[in-house]
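User: Predict the structure for this protein chain, please.
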Amino acid sequence: MLNALSERLHEENFATIETDTAQSAMEICRTEEPDAVIVDDPTELADTGVPTIVIVRKAEVDTAIEALRRGAIDYLSTPIDMNRLLGTLRTLRSDSQSDTLSDILPRQRATRNLSKRTNCATQPIIGHSSAIEHVREMIRRVAPSDARVLVLGENGTGKELVARWLHLKSCRCQAPFVEVNCAAIPAELIESELFGHEKGSFTSAVRQRKGKFELADGGTLFMDEVGDMSLSAQAKVLRALQENKITRVGGDRDISVDVRVVAATNKNIRNEIERGNFREDLYHRLSVIEIDVPPLRDRRDDIGLLVEHFIEEICSRQNITTKHIDTEAIEILRSRQWSGNIRELHNVIERLIILSDENITAECVRLYCHVR
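Assistant: Here is the predicted structure, written as structure tokens:
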């Protein structure tokens, strides 16, 4: 898990330091002054004063909540939600404006230093199909405005990528882009996560903490999986959108915020409204503009371009010679249904690169991807 996580952070251009003991981690915290620590046992690093992100198994959610009460800034259960982790790290970066980020995890002997990532750098939108050209045109028209946008689409279609391009092409592009995964935050913590809290507002509030709305002031707040928010959280978000003000948990004063909200969901929000799971007034606040990101099966002509892009990107990241893929192999990939969309395609190409020789053939696709 550590190797995979380190490679992904490397891909995202975060600087990391890895260590295999708590004692070494404590020393690194003292000498290197990292911006964050990622650890599976927060008690060993409780007194460093460094923001801590805790990784736990799904069965250990109680442990994670206890860690949050003791001062951890976030927790992730395995398998790790990389969008949430990256969002937390980027928020820390925008908050601290530090030049390095250290990733400290147990049971790893190697140490490496990586370069810092610029604010909201992102991947291109690949493809020339009419469906994806429509998405590009919507981004071009909508991005310069401050209109709220609701991005719709299945899992793995690239909704976060659309949100990032809306930010990059806006007049807010030099301000923070802050992400929050609404589905990944327990209901009892969502208010603190979004609006922050004051020191002493509850047992583990040992210091004042800004929420995502405040951290995104002047920039863009990307609320992913907004359809999974509880009704009580929806009511608080509605008030923030109506008044452009938030109140920290335990606070008694309103704080004005200038935030452009881009929300995303894989759910049919109208159906959720009918079932009583989503507030209709919040939907109308969020969906001034709607952008539908097409599933991969509706843009099969783009699969060849995506495959070539992923081969180049993965081979470069893994420092291996770029591999060639046969035309017949691409045609087989085009015929697949891709229920996981672009995310699934990326994983399949990485598997083929690892398991194939210099040339990725149709036989490799049939053998390693279970397609005919």
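The longest strand covers residues 260-265.
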